[in-house]
Design brief:
The complex is a heterodimer. Chain A contains four helices and no strands. By secondary structure, chain A is mostly helical. Chain B is mainly α. The chains are: A mainly alpha, B mainly alpha.
Chain lengths: 90, 159
């Protein structure tokens, strides 16, 4: 069983690594993220949210949905550990 | 200073006097710094996750130096459970509240319909509310994870 788990992990890792080959180069000024998204945030964040910290504005406001599920993931991890270890005691 | 020394010497649990003393000195400053990181997340690097981990690490340090039982005097299991759930509830509930008062889910600007404030100000304070929720949730989960993993689920005595 552990062999299958290892194979599945290695396969998933290989697919993900293969996928990164199509990414734009790191810090490429011509990439879509740098030409549209970054420029929009830099121009409008302070005007629209009064927040000097762009990272906090993007995480807490523009991408709040993502942040919410990050918190839910941590919550699920804690509840899972609690459920597994509490069950093992009896 | 004498009172501090007596406090350290009279608490049971833990083994080493140096560790117990330094932990007792460090914990208030770690907690203060955690609160600062949460509240100041708009201006400087930081935010709910980082501040929550700092606040949780203060309790973990206490549990490491004095034992799991002793750290539960300062945050009971019920308080921990309450903190975690209220933290997640603040985030999700504030998002739903924004939807109820006439905006989209997590659209903080819509809160201006309830309490008139300029729209950028509401987005500013909305992020603050959400960060407080994240901080509470992360702090509680970190402590809960440590309690469970260090004592194999019994939460009685551990590392």
């Amino acid at each position: 069983m552990k062999v299958f788990a290892l194979l599945a992990t290695a396969l998933t890792g290989a697919i993900l690594l293969y996928g990164t080959a199509d990414f734009p180069a790191w810090g490429d000024p011509e990439s879509p993220a740098s030409t549209h998204v970054s420029a929009y945030f830099i121009e409008t964040v302070v005007r629209d949210t009064h927040m000097p910290n762009l990272v906090a504005a993007v995480l807490g406001d523009y991408r709040a949905y993502d942040t919410m599920f990050e918190l839910v993931v941590i919550y699920c991890a804690g509840m899972a550990v609690l459920a597994v270890l509490r069950g093992a005691r009896s | 200073m004498r009172r501090f020394r007596e406090q350290v010497q009279n608490t049971e649990g833990g083994t080493d006097l140096i560790i117990r003393t330094s932990v007792r000195l460090m914990v208030p400053f770690i907690q203060l710094f955690g609160l600062y990181v949460i509240v100041h997340g708009h201006y400087s690097p930081g935010g709910g996750f980082q501040g929550g981990v700092l606040l949780g690490s203060a309790f973990i340090l206490l549990a490491l130096a004095y034992g799991v039982e002793y750290s539960k005097k300062y945050m009971s299991e019920f308080a921990n459970f309450l903190t975690v759930n209220i933290g997640v509830f603040i985030f999700v509930g504030f998002g739903i509240l924004c939807a109820l008062v006439g905006g989209f889910f997590l659209d903080y600007g819509a809160m201006a319909n309830v309490f008139p404030m300029p729209l950028p100000e509401w987005r500013y304070w909305g992020v603050f509310v959400v960060e407080v929720g994240v901080g509470m949730g992360v702090m509680g989960i970190m402590v809960s994870l440590y309690w469970d993993l260090a004592s194999a689920g019994s939460r009685k005595e551990g590392l």
